[in-house]
Amino acid sequence: MTTCQIGILGAMGRMGQAIAATISATEGATIGGAADRPTHDMVGKPYPFADVTLGGSIEDLFRSSDVVIDFTPPGSTAHHAGIAAQTGKPLIVGTTGLKAADHAALDDAAASTVIVQAGNFSLGVNLLTALTQKAASILGDDWDIEILEMHHRNKVDAPSGTAEMLGEAAASGRQVNLEDVACRSREGIIGARPSGEIGFATLRGGSVIGEHEVVFASDSERITLSHRAENRGLFAGGAVRAAVWAQGKPAGRYTMLDVLGLDL
């Protein structure tokens, strides 16, 4: 079996460490390199989770790896995508809060290499996404759709990438554009809820890893689809699975649904 050398961006972060532990426990995968911001006090020292040195150069990380996993905070995705395109190395992107420019950069990079980007890498959430699209396609506009999410106090983007992914699935099921029907905040005297609206509610607090609910509500009944993450290992497991899957695939833009073979 060919071993997949996986590079980790943001290797000293919580997700970076979870990914490192998962790679170490995955047959056919090994840590090819680890990098964090150049100012991190561990740069230049042995990486605690593998027999590599923690680096500060993103370019060096891509050169030493077969595939790179990126769960770093938003702001650097476009730059990382450019390096992936230059080196031809697949890039697995779990960063949330991406802007239009980030997605454009990922689309451009996908012409040269494999890009796997998802708002969430867990099997359960991707099944929830499929179920959300299916339910939205069956239920009419007289069923209101609300998406509720809660995360830890340190999460920097809202709504979460997973909530946005679920909103996209619901909109796709209804064959509408999410941006035309989304309501991401409510305050004051806002009037009655418009028909067809897809609402979002965001909660932040404590150490919650991730909780998501999709509520379908009619005048006479309510359906709730939900998912709760118990530990970050489930996201790391999906990302490593995507990294191994990406090897040898033709250049293109993929999601976790492609990795899992879930056809929406």
Helix and strand arrangement:
Layout lengths: L3 E6 L4 H11 L4 E7 L18 E2 L2 H7 L2 E4 L6 H11 L3 E3 L6 H10 L4 E4 L5 H16 L5 E8 L9 H14 L3 H4 E2 L14 E7 L6 E7 L4 E7 L4 H14 L5 E3 L1 H5 L4
Parallel strand pairs: 1-2, 1-4, 2-3, 4-5, 5-6, 6-12, 7-9, 8-9
Antiparallel strand pairs: 7-10, 10-11
Helix pairs in contact: 1-8, 2-3, 3-4, 5-6
Subunit structure: Homotetramer.
Main location: cytoplasm
Organism: Kordiimonas sediminis
Rg calculated over all Cα atoms = 19 Å
What is the overall shape? elongated
Tell me the CATH architecture of the largest domain.
3-Layer(aba) Sandwich
CATH topology title of the largest domain? Rossmann fold
Describe this protein's structure.
The structure is a single chain. The chain has 9 helices and 12 strands. By secondary structure, it is of the alpha/beta class. It has 2 domains: 4-121 and 232-260, Rossmann fold, CATH 3.40.50; 123-228, Dihydrodipicolinate Reductase, domain 2, CATH 3.30.360.10. Strand 1, helix 1 and strand 2 (29-35) form a beta-alpha-beta unit. Helix 1 (14-24) crosses helix 8 (233-246). It is elongated. GO terms for molecular function: 4-hydroxy-tetrahydrodipicolinate reductase; NAD binding; NADP binding; oxidoreductase activity, acting on CH or CH2 groups, NAD or NADP as acceptor. Catalyzes the conversion of 4-hydroxy-tetrahydrodipicolinate (HTPA) to tetrahydrodipicolinate.
